[in-house]
C-alpha cells in the first residue's frame, strides 16, 4: 500500500511543473490552471491504483486534465481561488531578444485560438501525445484533431513568421 | 508544415514563461483521502491505506528536513505536538448528531453562526448535488433546490452561498433571493454574512479581473463595490469590518470603507485572508515548495493590534471571536491564542480509530460550538460539538 502511495507522490511531484504548464497554456488563466491541476491531482490520488495500471499514464492524466478544464469552465465561479491575483510571468534576462518576442507572440497567438485548437496544439506539441491519445483526451475523432491541428498550426505559423520578419529585418 | 516548424513550436511551448504554480500536493492528498473515504470503499481496507498515505506525503511533500517516524499519522496534529504544556481549560465538550431530514451518503455541517444556534450544511451523494440544510436549535429545514453550496449563516439564520453558475443567493425567512451580479461582471463568489445583514464576496469577469462587493440582506438586488479593481472580500465581522485581499496583499476595510493593508509575516511574499470573526482573522501564506508544489501555511491576524502570526498546524478551518482556531486535519482540535488546546471528543458509538475520520468546518463566536461530520460505515453524518465552561 505504502509503495503505491509513494509511487503516486513521486509521479505527481515529477509531473506537476509540466501539468501546470499544460493547463496554463490550454486556458491562459493562472488561477484556473492552478484549480484544474489541483483537482486533477486530487482525482488522480483517488483513482491512483487504477490509473497507475494504465498503459500510458501520462495520456490518461492529460485526459483527466482536459475534462477538468471543461468542467471548470462551466462551474469555475463556485470554486474558491487559492490567492488573489495573477503573478507576472518570470522572464529570464539572458533570453535573446528575438526568442522573447517569439514567446510573447506565441502566447498571444494561443490566446486568440479557439479552445479546441489551443488544446490540440498543447497536447500534441507540448505533451507530445499521439493523434489517438489526443483524440481520446479530447473526446473527439482523430479527423477532428487533425483538422484542428492544421488550423491551429496555420494560425501560429503566421504569427511566428511575422515576428521573425519584424525582429530580424531592420526597418 | 515542416518538421522543423513543429519542433520550433514544441520548443516554444516548452520554454514560454508561465506563472508560478500554486498547486498544493499535500492538499490534494488530503482532499483525495476524504473523497476516497466518501466512496463506497471497504472501511478497514481504506483505513489501512490512509495510515500509509499520511506518512508518505509528509515526507515527500511537506518539505520537512527529517522524515517522521513511520508510526506517526503525519497529517494529523496531536495535542502533544502543538507544544501546549499549559493546563487544559476547564471546558467539557460533547458531540451530538444533527438530524437528517433527507437521505444522502454525504451529509455534513459546514458553518455555524456566531451564537451557535444556526448551523448550515448539505446532504447529497458528494457529487455536487447536495441540498442545503439549515438547522435552527437542532431542527432541520431543507432549502429550495436552487440554493447550492452554502458559504455562511448569520445570527438571524440567514444563509448565503453561490450556485455552480456563479450566482449569489440569500435565504431569508423561508425565501430564496438572488444577489445582484454587478453590471459588467460575469459571476460572483459570496463568502460571508454578518448579523447586521452585510454580505461580502467578490465579483469576477471572464478575464479574471475582480473586485470586492458588499450586499445587504435587506436589498439583495442592490450592491456596492468595495476598494478598487483587484480587490476581493472573503470575510466580515459583526461590526462590519471586511477582510480580503488587494492584489496579493491581505487587506481590511473599516465599516466606513477605509482601506488598510494587513501585515504579511516576515519572509513571506504574500498572504490571503480566509475569514474573520471579532478582532481576529485567519488566512494562508505560501510555505516550503517541493518542485512546483507549494505548501500553504495558516496564519492568524489580530485586527486590533495588527499582529500576524504563523500557526504551527497544517491548516486552520475556522476562527472564533475569542481567537480560538479550529484545526481540523485529523481529529478536530480547538487552539486558543495562548496556545492551550482542547481535542474534541468523538461519539462513543463511532469506532473512529484513525485520524482524519472526523471533519470540523465551522466554529461559533465563543469557540464553544463546532460543526462538522464523521465518516463511518461508508457515509458522512453531520455532527455538532457543544462545549461548556
From TrEMBL, chain A:
The family this protein is said to belong to: Belongs to the sigma-70 factor family. ECF subfamily.
Keywords on record: DNA-binding, Sigma factor, Transcription, Transcription regulation
Keyword Transcription belongs to the record: yes
Keyword DNA-binding part of the UniProt annotation: yes
Domain (RNA polymerase sigma factor 70 region 4 type): residue spans on this chain: 104-155
Native organism: Micromonospora arida
Classification via InterPro entries: RNA_pol_sigma-70-like, RNA_pol_sigma-70_dom, RNA_pol_sigma-E_actinobac, RNA_pol_sigma70_r2, RNA_pol_sigma70_r4_t2, RNA_pol_sigma_r2, RNA_pol_sigma_r3/r4-like, WH-like_DNA-bd_sf
GO biological process: DNA-templated transcription initiation
GO molecular function, one term: sigma factor activity
Top-rank taxon: Bacteria
Domain RNA polymerase sigma-70 region: 13-74
Pfam family, one: Sigma70_r2
Protein name: SigE family RNA polymerase sigma factor
From TrEMBL, chain B:
Keyword Transmembrane helix assigned: yes
UniProt KW keywords: Membrane, Transmembrane, Transmembrane helix
Keyword Transmembrane helix included in the entry's annotation: yes
Transmembrane segments: 41-63
Superkingdom of the source species: Bacteria
Protein name, entry field: HAF repeat-containing protein
Organism of derivation: Micromonospora trifolii
Taxonomy of the source species: Bacteria, Bacillati, Actinomycetota, Actinomycetes, Micromonosporales
